[in-house]
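Q: I'm building a small set of examples for a reading group on sequence design. Run inverse folding on the following structure and report the sequence directly after it, with nothing in between.
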């Protein structure tokens, strides 16, 4: 069976809502792809019991997964040892080794079998990444020696991309450049071409109203030359626009991608507009990496109230592409 018919899923932070939304997603979707979950058997059983979810579990050996007759009538699991004392605990660095093993297992399988579809559950960046990486986008890119990447929060109607990801606001202006903007927007342009779509891109200025009392105006000195360069390359791009009005319905209707300079500049409005109806895609990798567009949500652990829509959308996206 072709490696394109598999979706590898790393459950991520063990003390998160991911397994809850994973079980809910399996009930609601009928994907053509074969889903393989990488997680702890003990944890899966504990959470299934807590959430009163029943399904047979089939243990796979990672060295020959394509030899198994896999179907989604069962949970196809690659077991990574983890010894939780209960189904839900507080998020801490205690689970770091387990999360790392899950990712390493996934990367090994992706490389060995040339798997093209990968989902990871949410990770607590503060405990797992420990300031070594800005986020999971950078962590996965580094693991595959990819230097050019972009984080795209994707919805079929409107997507957003922050030029910088999980940086403090005070560090944003130092980390934007014409080169970085051009590289990331070209990744977006090429991604949309693969989807047989044309990217219509708006870029947001860094400063309020694209103005500043400072001597150096990033919008004039960095963004405008980047936009000019990209237009010469034939891209459909405009801006920079003021961040406080570009997301108004009349303005955003002209575009299907809005690129901002920092994380909350674009993620706050996109989540307000679409809530859970969006997915996080890492551009630039040799495979499609997607994740639900939300975090571990520790406050909701064990309540069986979490919305699975973003994970459902992630699986459906990989099913089609």
């Amino acid at each position: 069976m072709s490696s394109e018919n598999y979706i590898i899923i790393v459950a991520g932070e063990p003390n998160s809502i991911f397994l809850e939304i994973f079980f809910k997603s399996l009930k609601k979707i009928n994907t053509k792809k074969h889903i393989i979950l990488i997680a702890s058997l003990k944890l899966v059983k504990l959470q299934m019991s807590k959430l009163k979810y029943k399904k047979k579990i089939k243990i796979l050996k990672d060295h020959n997964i394509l030899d198994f007759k896999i179907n989604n009538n069962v949970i196809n699991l690659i077991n990574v040892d983890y010894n939780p004392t209960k189904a839900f605990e507080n998020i801490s660095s205690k689970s770091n080794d387990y999360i790392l093993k899950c990712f390493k297992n996934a990367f090994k399988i992706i490389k060995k079998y040339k798997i093209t579809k990968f989902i990871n559950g949410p990770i607590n960046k503060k405990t797992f990444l420990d300031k070594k990486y800005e986020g999971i986008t950078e962590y996965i890119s580094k693991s595959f020696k990819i230097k050019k990447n972009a984080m795209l929060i994707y919805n079929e109607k409107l997507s957003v991309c922050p030029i910088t990801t999980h940086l403090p606001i005070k560090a944003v202006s130092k980390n934007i450049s014409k080169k970085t903007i051009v590289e990331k927007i070209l990744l977006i342009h090429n991604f949309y071409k693969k989807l047989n779509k044309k990217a219509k891109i708006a870029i947001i200025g860094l400063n309020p109203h694209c103005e500043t009392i400072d001597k150096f105006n990033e919008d004039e000195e960095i963004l405008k030359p980047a936009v000019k360069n990209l237009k010469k390359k034939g891209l459909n791009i405009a801006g920079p626009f003021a961040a406080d009005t570009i997301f108004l319905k009349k303005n955003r209707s002209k575009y299907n991608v809005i690129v901002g300079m920092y994380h909350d500049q674009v993620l706050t409005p996109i989540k307000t507009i679409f809530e859970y109806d969006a997915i996080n895609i890492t551009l630039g990798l040799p495979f499609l990496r997607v994740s639900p567009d939300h975090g571990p949500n520790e406050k909701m652990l064990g309540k069986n109230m979490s919305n699975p829509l973003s994970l459902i959308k992630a699986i459906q996206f990989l099913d089609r592409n």
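DSSP finds eleven helices and twelve strands in the chain.
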